[in-house]
Amino acid sequence: MDKKLTVLDRVTLPTPRFFRKVRTIGAALAAVGGVLATAPVALPAAIVTLGGYLMLAGSVAAAVSSVAVEPDAPPVRADGRTTAEVHDLAERRDAASL
Q: Residue 76 pairs with which residues in a beta bridge?
C-alpha cells in the first residue's frame, strides 16, 4: 500500500481470515483468564496469576489482530464505502453517517 491507513481505516476494513481466527482465540483466552482471575471461590495464587496473564495475552492478541488488513486489498470497507468517503465524513464531523 502506498498510503498509510489510520486506525479508523484499519478497524473498518475487512480482516484477513487468519487474523479473524487469532482474534477469536484471543477473546476466548481473555474470557477464560477473566473467569480464573475473578472466581468467587478461593483458588491458589498461581491460578489467579495465570488468569491475569491469560487476560493480558488474550486481549493483546485480539486487539492486534483486529487492526490487521490485507496489504493488496482495495481500501473498501465492509459497508461498501471507500476510505476516502470515510475521511470526508470524518472531516465534516458527520459521525452519525459513519
A: 82
Q: What is the C-alpha separation between 8 and 75, in angstroms, rounded?
A: 12
Q: Where are the alpha helices (DSSP H) in 1-98?
A: 7-12, 17-37, 45-66, 83-91
Cell output for 36: 480464573
pLDDT digits (tens, 9 = 90+) for 81-96: 666 666 676 677 655 5
% of the chain residues with pLDDT over 70: 72
DSSP-based three-state secondary structure for 77: coil
Interatomic CA distance for residues 1 and 74, integer angstroms: 9
Q: Which cell numbers in the block locate residue 24?
A: 477469536
